[in-house]
Known about the structure:
It is built from 16 helices and 20 strands. Helix 9 (243-253) runs antiparallel to helix 10 (260-268). Strands 2, 3, 4, 7, 8, 9, 10, 11 and 12 form a nine-stranded mixed β-sheet that branches. Strands 14-13-15-20 form a four-stranded antiparallel β-sheet, sandwiched between helices. It is of the alpha+beta class and 502 residues long. 33% of the residues lie in helices and 23% in strands. A hairpin with a 2-residue loop joins strand 17 (440-445) and strand 18 (448-452). The longest helix is centred in the middle third of the chain and has 21 residues, at 323-343. The two termini are 17 Å apart.
Amino acid sequence: MNKKIILSILLLFFSLQCTKSYSITKQSKLAGSWYPSNKSKLLQHLTSSHGSLQKVEHTPLIIVPHAGYMYSAHVAVKAYSAIANYKPDIVIIIGPSHYEYFNGFALPIYDAIQTPLGTVTIDQKTLHNLAQTNNFSFNNTAYEPEHSIEIQLPFIQHYFPSTPILPVLTGNITLQQAKQAAQQLLQAIAHYKNPLFIISSDFTHHGPRFGYAPYYNLKPDKRMEAIKTADMKAIEYILSHNPEGFYNYCQSTGITICGHNAILLGLLLFSKVHTKELAGYATSARITADYDNTVTYVAIVLTGEIQKTKTVHFGDSSLNLSNDDKKFLLTLARQSIETMLNKKTLLQYKGDIPEQCKQNAGAFVTLTINGNLRGCIGYIEPIKPLYQTIIECAANAAFEDPRFEPLTNDEFKKIHIEISLLSLLKKIQSLNELTLGKDGLLVVKGNRRGVLLPQVATQFGFSKDEFFHHTCQKAGIYSFEYKDVTMYSFTATIFDEGSFNH
């Protein structure tokens, strides 16, 4: 690859299609509305305890509501206080996405989340391990407005201070997807000895406001009884540890338990339940006196044994692609461009897909004609299965690179395709952790970010300091700002059509 191509790629490498926003700490969006911004007033909601278990002998899972504290904190605290003596080393929070529709499970982009009680740290290693799987991916737009995760954080800070968290948002999933995702989640956290699972969910939303009102014609007291009966049937499936029964009940009745998929995933994590308790039950009508539109709040405490899983070694390197896998991806890239060229639509691949290519991975597709750059676009983070990343990035490189006109039929016959498969990003503290020629570098300061590919250092003979300096230049970061720059390293596996005589 000549210097002109490399420099052109660098100009686009981070500015195009880079989905992870590196705002390191997410500021609270709920303080002052969903819960008090005043620390002492906030603590009043967290400490109205009704006692706690003497000892938690097995892994706990709690189901708690996520409405504003004035409506549901008095219910949630019953579950938290029941496990107050437990000492988790990781807290996994699973909640529904209320504002963004997607398939699978979404992971946050943040290193931490700020509340009036301080900062909650997100376990980055486990986060990135999960992102390698086919069911979990980063999704910033789902997390930005969402309340189901953050509403639990003050409770976690109060009862389990300084414990790292792993947030997961659930989207549209099948029962089979949930079973697979449960195994992947357990594999990703296998290095922790004392996990705590928190399922964030309200129960039945009933009334015209929610589009679910099967009991609306009943008198208020009878209506509330009917709602409670429906809730209790769902709760019975939970307490009896019957995930498939719970799933089928929700599917057949259409009951509006917003976190039903989060509850399903939580139940599938366990092989056996030893203790079970319905710790609290209330409705919004208790506060609002509105019986036409009501929401149910439930606190459930389970303890038991989590499923055993096969050992999986998550790494920081790229997927181990075979030559056949690489040939498949290069062919797929060309098919994607040809489909967009002729049919003006993105390729919907229906053939067999190699297993490695189904895993989430970051990658770039570079197009050249006679050694000159003709397009380069990619995803740095593993936000989608690799095969889908290649389909999208190939089409975008050919037709959406703003420096070039859309690819023509004549040019299509001349293009040469190269794929760069990226490793996961690894946060580093010092340039001494870099290996020149092997590691690429990403620098971040606020919303400014820049990146250089691994081969640039050797291509231009950069020292580590020069490599850092030029990467900062790409980000628009001045030398007097270097002190607070966050650095990430990564590697790239590069292969092209010439490697296989296409």
